[in-house]
Amino acid sequence: MQLQDKRPPIWVSWWMAFSAVVVTWDAAYCFLRPRSFVGGDLAWIWAPYNMVPYSMVDYLYGQPGVDSKQGFTNAQALMNVIEVFLALEYLYLRHTSPRTSSLTKNPAHRYHAHAPLVGFAGALMTLSKTALYFLQEYYCDWCMVGHNDRFTFWVVWVTTNGYVHNIIATISHRLSYQLTSSLTAEPGYSCLLS
């Protein structure tokens, strides 16, 4: 009888590692504005942003956001830092810190029990923040992105943010499944079962 692998899928780890790098890069862009803008002394670090230039697509990221003292961008960048710590903690718990259950004989079941919870918290935080970006724009009547032509709005702003939103929603769903499976299937680790 072949036992089912109970660990969170490896693609979640790949995404967490990738997103930790990208989110750190994004947070640094926000904290270092206007030095990170086109023409700034640090602009070369954010060449992909500055090729679009994203700061002209989304004014929250650009000079208009800085000039109007919009605190939202740096507030979300600070939340990015917390996201990165959660992603790194997930990776550590999932791959380095094994669970030490005497009830778990199969090595395919060994991973730290908190890994799915930490990953879920980080993914849900990212999902909420991405939704907040859309909602903020909706409720301010597209005040920071409404100046774009339709192509730029849909391809650069909606598609990129929507793509990330869908990946994170999938990860949140997968890790929530992992959590509920663990709570109901492993009596040695479940606080719901005696």
Structure, briefly:
This protein has one domain (10-100, 108-183). Helix content is 62%, strand content 0%. It has seven helices and no strands.
Which labels suit this protein?
single chain, 194 residues, mainly alpha, 7 helices, 0% strand, disordered C terminus, transmembrane, membrane, transmembrane helix
What does this structure look like?
The protein is mainly alpha-helical and 194 residues long. It has one domain (10-100, 108-183). 62% of the residues lie in helices and 0% in strands. Helix 5 (72-95) packs antiparallel against helix 6. The protein is elongated, with a radius of gyration of 20 Å. The two termini are 27 Å apart. The model is unreliable at 189-194 (pLDDT under 50).
What is the number of domains? Answer: 1
- Which series of helices and strands comes N to C? HHHHHHH
The biggest sheet amounts to: none
Q: Tell me roughly what share of residues is in helical segments.
A: 55-70%
Number of helices: 7
| Shape category | elongated
Radius of gyration: 20 Å
Task: Tell me what portion of residues adopts beta-strand conformation.
Answer: under 5%
Distance from N terminus to C terminus (CA atoms, Å) equals 27 Å
Number of strands: 0
Keywords: Membrane, Transmembrane, Transmembrane helix
Transmembrane segments: 12-32, 44-62, 74-93, 114-135
What topology emerges from the helices and strands here?
Elements (H helix, E strand, L loop, with lengths): L9 H22 L15 H5 L2 H4 L5 H5 L4 H24 L19 H25 L10 H36 L9
